[in-house]
Amino acid sequence: MKTTAFIFAFVIMSSMTYGQTNPQFQPEKFPKDQANSIYNYLNNNVKYFQDAALNCIPGTEVIAFVVTPAGELTGFRVINSVSPAVDDEVIRVLKETSGSWSPGSRNGVPAGMEQEVALVFVPNGHFNIVEEAKSLLDKGNRILTVKKDPERALKYFNDAFRLRPCEESILAARSRCLYTLGDIEGAILDCSRMIELNQSQNNQLEAADPFTLMEQLMDHTGGSIAFR
Questions:
Q1: TonB C-terminal domain spans which residues (predicted)?
Q2: What's the pLDDT score for residue 25?
Q3: Could you tell me the fold of the domain covering 5-123?
Q4: Which of 30, 63, 120, 205 could be cross-linked to 35 through a Cys-Cys bond (beta carbons 3.0 to 4.6 Å apart)?
Q5: Helix or strand or coil: residue 228?
């Protein structure tokens, strides 16, 4: 049985570089009438079943995939999971669009490129995912900086990340926390993700590599990253 849920889909485009064009979903190649955009198709066809609702918390599902030079989709991977059932359902619907994408290109030559889609799931619609993520981030920051309890702070940052995995301020806070706990690899991964997101939005962080960014976050030379 399908349960009521708020689902909002959006695409996180791959980063743009000189001479590059990104893959595009082409509705005219798709055999189903409702596919006037990839956003519309995901919103209308991802089914949020009762068993999935009972086994997940509100959150943002992020799935990455590669659009091949032939316009096929492959290489699916889960970046942030709402639940295993939702993972499977989103990938199932994305696979239906395989062959309906124009490939990306570099210097005029078709090339395989990775794309990401993000879907916000709020069971029954009674939840403000942005406000809750901001509240969790603020609590984590207070616990980390005032109470000096990074282990407890990390729980708040992880919960905030599940809600807003593409929010750079959450990644920055969690990276600092992981570094404080001695998890350098985890801190670097969050910094790498920040750089990827920044490039996809055509913004430029001062740091071009995750190691430099982590150093800036720890000594605060990178400035404050505002919640958006």
A1: 45-121
A2: 76
A3: 3.30.1150
A4: 30
A5: coil
